[in-house]
């Protein structure tokens, strides 16, 4: 039965004759120029659309912090000072913090971390340090809140953890000591072990996590996103714990794979429906590739490659062109595969999804609730197109380390 959530992929697959990039992965000037022109067109449309956006939404996911992150990224790619000024403008709007959540995408940590980096690039040292200090004031509540705080990316510990990693990467130095990162991971491990024992699943998976009483699998709310962070080098103090706790938990997720190569949104869900970054193969790819890097087991790479096939067949979503559940977010899966394998077909497939995105609005896709935002709308598509100009440096925003 054809997938009702995706449009049929109209593109011919890679056969070695398509001339979009050189053997080093540099896009041809004509294709890169087409992307750059489209970025400019979409930015104009986005700015116009943002005039009617919710002025109170300060989040990275759908609000002002996400737009600031886009302009910060564009400044990094193109080096134009006007983009940094736009980032400053939007991040200034995002600093009306609520105290409700602590994460990069949906809480206070994201606006603070983005503001710190914007100030850093503007050489406003005192303001950057103030933002980092405010971020670190949240740290103890994140460490101590075992049981009361979730562990997933959008609202939990992984989302706060990313904020610390983002600071260190953007500053190019260890502004946040590694011990702070390790303490967050320690708390996440304790939380995961506790739930696995409570649910009596520790023999299958030594770590288990829930969000609203559901054991989600994907990158946004689930196991794959959390395990991806717990496998990052140095994040967990003691490689033995990565081997004894994280690896068998990753293997548990691998066993959930459908015959198609896709993954369920929740443990126990038998419906092979969702092919999104947030739920399904597009988000699980990152866990699989990281497991392959850390443990060297070829099956993880094979599973990731199978996920790539799911993406190619079912990744052009009727939901639209966004990051969380759209074509741009799915295209990042191809870039992740390309960075590990250096196989041209993955970069080609990302380019074809970019071609789809450059025909924005012409496929009859749904209009998201926040049509110009980073994770649901146009800003995320622009972010992806800019990343495609430098494939080996590309990273799924607010997630990929």
Automatic annotation (TrEMBL):
Topology of this chain in the membrane: Peripheral membrane protein
Residues given in the record as Zn(2+) binding sites: 278, 324-325
Enzyme class name: transferase
Top-level taxon: Eukaryota
Name of the molecule in the record: Glutathione S-transferase LANCL1
SMART domains for the chain: LANC_like
EC id: 2.5.1.18
Broad class of where this protein is predominantly found: membrane
InterPro entries: 6hp_glycosidase-like_sf, LANC-like, LanC-like_prot_euk
Record localization: Cell membrane; Cytoplasm
Keyword annotations from UniProtKB, A to Z: Cell membrane, Cytoplasm, Membrane, Metal-binding, Transferase, Zinc
GO BP term (any one): carbohydrate metabolic process
Keyword Cytoplasm: yes
GO cellular component terms attached to this protein's record: cytoplasm; plasma membrane
UniProt catalytic activity: RX + glutathione = an S-substituted glutathione + a halide anion + H(+); 1-chloro-2,4-dinitrobenzene + glutathione = 2,4-dinitrophenyl-S-glutathione + chloride + H(+)
Family statement drawn from the similarity comment of this UniProt entry: Belongs to the LanC-like protein family.
Pfam families assigned: LANC_like
Any GO MF annotation of the entry: metal ion binding
